[in-house]
Write a structure and sequence with these properties.
- The structure is a homodimer.
- By secondary structure, chain A is an alpha/beta fold.
- Among the domains of chain A are: about 60 residues, 434 Repressor (Amino-terminal Domain); about 150 residues, Response regulator (Rossmann fold), CATH 3.40.50.
- Chain A contains 13 helices and 12 strands.
- In chain A, helix 8 packs parallel to helix 9.
- The longest helix of chain A is centred in the C-terminal third of the chain and has 17 residues.
- The termini of chain A are far apart.
- Strand 2 of chain A pairs antiparallel with strand 2 of chain B, so a sheet runs across the interface.
- The first copy, chain A, binds a DNA duplex through helix 2 and helix 4.
DNA sequence: GTGAAAGCGCTAACAA
DNA sequence: TTGTTAGCGCTTTCAC
């Protein structure tokens, strides 16, 4: 049903090369006559011609597709960013091959290898973050790449990040400013740049306000709902229960909510909460959630922009850009004002 | 840095064909000696061999990738289903090329064309639904395909659906059973199978309980938050305001919530709501949301399963499967019991 | 057991 | 202004 260049060539009595030139719009460059051009174009239409991207990619060593590696595409944050990336990439003529790693480093390596096989022109990676050797490899071989949302301190890569340190500092300081001193933090995946930065911001805010860091209040190990649930359960049953919890990712927040309501506690009244990552639903929760909002659309667009620049630059020694965006505290009602209570 | 078959052939002094046979695991079939096999395998490793999927695909006319066409990947429902599909496809040896249509039929046609160019082995499509000619085309040319979440009455395709009629009937009947008679429905995209079915279920439930259908109460035109917001605003300001609203998709629900709280109304007390599509956040909303839950994981897995069966069947006259799954009503607290109020 | 060679559909350097 | 041809990396038939 679908035809190839040779079919059109035969049909029109012209050569394959001429047909190729016309269907690729190189008519000017090769000074193809209008007659020939029209003939070929209508034949292409007639014969239902569809270019074969595999053949084209093989020949040109360009597939016009980019590989997206994401930890969990069902997580609202990643889902949103993925949509932005898809849209922007598509409008720039690139398709997206999407790979989910489920936060597994082995899966991540495997997926990258696969994408390499598929001949993607570049990568946008939201890495698991606990290991970087395979990313370094990519870097050494000069594959166009940008790291998104998470990066490695030790690696000089293109990256688009949110200022995790600042976001975390702001969130913690907000709590402190409302009189909280017993503040817990539930962290995501250990030993990653993102987690380290968020922890650093938390600690620094406490220290700056002369609050001693309580290691019992620093918990968590990954980004799943269960982690949020378990750690919140733990915190709520501590002898000296914290007055506030800082959840460092949206799925952790869901787990925390689950645990809090299960314990029949009221948010704000009994326990305050501030979340990293804002959600569409945040304003409509029982206790509208005070949250750190990340500029998701900008992150997505910026990542594609950077990647395309990288792809289209021939110099391998192109400067790498590290773009850090500022998150924003959205104050709602999930944090109690302990100062008022003290006065009463 | 990366090598090809010819490099290994040269390195080992063997021929390209032998190398190909070994790296593809056809050693038995061709009775390759163990010595040769080991030699080649270690050379492949040494030289960092990576198969070129483009060349392979060109030769075999199989790309081991499948095209996923989705209306809005940032919508939690689609995001979740996409993750399931990605995981299952990957574990079956297939990559996913993901295309977002933003509910635009033109975009959908374009994306399908593009996927065809890329030589995908099959399609999983969640179609916009207002037009089917391009899908029919695919069908005629015998491309493996399954329609997911939405389908066309007129087309005999593989499809995995939720029983929209029943879900809608159940939701509406639930409202009626609690004494509601003025029930509005906010619909998604017009003239699509899904919307028609949901409307049909709503109407039938009303009719079965001798409630006259009020056309003022049937509103909505697409799946965006704004649609939910605008239509809810409209409904709430009607002279005879409905006592309950049935929102037929999760983004519509978000918009409805926004409008309701903006009008300073209390859910349940002032206005009841039941939603099609359950959300992680639903239990933690100000008014925990009564919702119709769709079996998302099953839908995703089933779609891949069906597609792989289609891909691997050589007979073009393979029976098409239409799988209809049952949704489930999750009762929470967003619907008031009007019967009690009447008694009081 | 292994190799030579054709060809998948396309592009571009070179020729005319 | 158009055509001839080599070759991208791979699989597989046919030959030995």
């Amino acid at each position: 049903m679908t035809s190839k260049l040779a079919d059109i060539a035969e049909y029109t009595g012209l050569s394959i090369s001429t047909v190729s030139r016309v269907v690729n719009g190189h008519t000017r460059k090769y000074r193809i006559s209008d007659k020939t051009k029209d003939l070929i174009l209508s034949a292409a239409n007639e014969l239902n011609y569809r270019p074969n991207a595999l053949a084209r990619g093989l020949r040109l060593k360009k597939s016009h597709s980019i590989g997206l590696v994401v930890p969990d595409i069902s997580n609202p944050f990643f889902a949103f960013v993925t949509r932005i990336i898809q849209n922007y990439a598509h409008s720039s003529g690139y398709s997206l091959i999407v790979c989910n790693t489920d936060e597994s480093i082995d899966s991540e390596k495997e997926q990258i290898e696969l994408l390499l096989s598929k001949g993607v022109d570049g990568f946008i990676i939201m890495p698991v973050g606990i290991e970087s050797a395979h990313i370094e490899e990519l870097l050494k071989e000069n594959y166009p790449m940008v790291l998104l949302d998470r990066c490695f301190e030790s690696l000089n890569t293109n990256s688009v990040l949110v200022d995790n340190y600042m976001g975390s500092y702001t969130a913690t300081e907000h709590l402190i400013s409302l009189g909280h001193r017993d503040i817990a933090i539930i962290l995501g995946l250990k030993n990653t740049y993102t987690t380290n930065e968020r922890l650093r911001g938390y600690k620094k805010a406490l220290e700056d306000h002369n609050i001693i860091v309580n290691s019992n209040y620093i918990v968590g190990k990954d980004y799943r709902i269960e982690n949020g649930y378990i750690e919140t359960k733990f915190l709520l049953n501590l002898e000296t229960r914290p007055s506030a919890i800082f959840t460092t990712s949206d799925l952790i927040t869901v787990g925390a909510l689950k645990a809090i309501y299960e314990e029949n506690l009221k948010i704000s009244e009994d326990i305050s909460i501030v979340a990293f990552d804002d959600s569409e639903f945040a304003p409509f929760l029982k206790s509208p959630l005070t949250a750190i909002r990340q500029p998701k659309e900008i992150m997505g667009e910026m990542a594609v922009k950077l990647l395309l620049a990288d792809i289209n630059s021939n110099k391998s020694d192109l400067e790498k850009s590290k773009i850090v965006l500022k998150p924003k505290l959205i104050i709602r009602e999930s944090v109690s004002d302990k100062r008022v209570l003290a006065v009463i």
